[in-house]
Amino acid sequence: MTVITDAFIRAAQNRARALGLTEHPVVVIKHPIASMNRDQVVQLARGSVEQVAQGLLAAAGGAGND
Amino acid sequence: MTSPARSPRRGPAAAAAPVAAPRASRLSVSGSVRDINDYYYAKGWTDGLPIIPPTQDLVLEMLEASPVTMKAEQVLGRLPPLNGTVTVEKVAVNSVMAGCKPDYFPVVLAAVKAVLQPQFNAGGITTTTGGAAPVLLVSGPIAQRLGINSGTAVFGSGHQANATIGRALRLTMRNLGGAVAETMEKSTHGWPGKYTMCFAENQPRCPWEPLHVALGYPAEASIVIVVAARGIHTMVESSQETGEGALETLVASMTAGGISGYYFQARGASPVVVLGPEHAAEIAASGYSRQDVVDYLFEHVRLPMGVIKNRGHYGARSWPAEYETAPDDFMVPLVADRSKFLVMVAGGDGRHSSWFPAWSATQRAVEVVEG
Questions:
Q1: Among B9, B38, B219, B293, which one has the highest count of C-beta atoms within 10 angstroms of its own C-beta?
Q2: Residues of chain B with pLDDT under 50
Q3: Closest chain B residue to the Cα of A10, Cα to Cα
Q4: Residue A66 domain-assigned?
Q5: What's the pLDDT tens digit per position in B57-100?
Q6: Domain residue spans in chain B?
Q7: What angle do CA B177, B26, A18 make, to 5 degrees?
Q8: Exposure pattern of B149-163 as b/e (b: 16+ CB <10 Å)?
Q9: What residue numbers bound the domain in which A41 lies?
Q10: Interface predicted TM-score (ipTM)
Q11: Stretch 4-63 of chain A: residues touching chain B, C-beta under 8 Å
């Protein structure tokens, strides 16, 4: 499970392909984040948390597995 | 390459056969040299400058200059970020394209092997926004033998060995590692070291033991050191009359805002300080050895915590844990370990010195040049 900003989509896809991880779950957020304040980052995280959870569950073997 | 390969005139393989890979594929491209260059450029195989078409004869000639222990199909490793398989032959192809003379090939191979060392982090160097490029430092008798410039305009143009050895490494990183802008290469700016950066220590004007000897190698050995740098920072000191004065001004040039090394010490990157020969002579005349200069830099190239806190790369800092509770008057060193400073002598006349700010998530890599 990897979170990337949209500036790095192409690089991330290429790298995943090179590693044979074409199904690796990725959540894409808007670039840039380094200049955001804490509240903005928290808001961004809340907006992505569901996708991240789904990605982690998928990486663990599929949604619904304990 | 453009047509079927013959086997180079080589001795028997080493007893323990190294990993081998299929030979490089062959292409047939017709037209003028300009047409072939246009083709290579359109394919994304060049750095934008013209290349020498890597015909089978030229590649073969390059391979014949490789160390006796190496065969064309030998795998040297997989080069991140795209993990292309690096063979001796493929490095030879890129060396021909770069314009190398065959005599340069052992140095190119040593540089490629250094870049493949995991701690160098070739993948990170390519993909960072921080503009890192490999800097090849050559120390040992081979530098003079090949005519690697160490004197006037040492970082500049006009010397075939400097220009093409560094370029061969960069083309290898491009074509086998995927160091291509907008796909894997993500530098905000980058710098001309992305084309080439290779030079040697100015041994005749170095007041100390050779760099490779200082690093523990025999005098007769030749080594390539590869560091990842974010650019070149130059300084002039033509007013002070002592070596201490030159060192003080050098330190002042290394204690500015926005230098990422202060925030990323945990990985052990190496800033490279290149003393001009006149500064080196003045510093030596003031009683400093090369190690004394390293010690001086470690003690003085520091910034107060209160100055760097909440600036630069503070939000992504990676440094010794004890810094976290240090007061604002704690002097943060540029490197946590003094041995990370590389001090060398290069350049021509004039009271100028330079330093290469290290990109941070890397460690230098060293390879002996095989004969």
A1: B293
A2: 4-15
A3: B183
A4: no
A5: 999 999 999 998 899 999 999 999 999 999 999 999 999 999 99
A6: 233-356
A7: 25
A8: bbbeebbeeebebbb
A9: 2-59
A10: 0.75
A11: 7-8, 10-11, 14-15, 18-19, 34
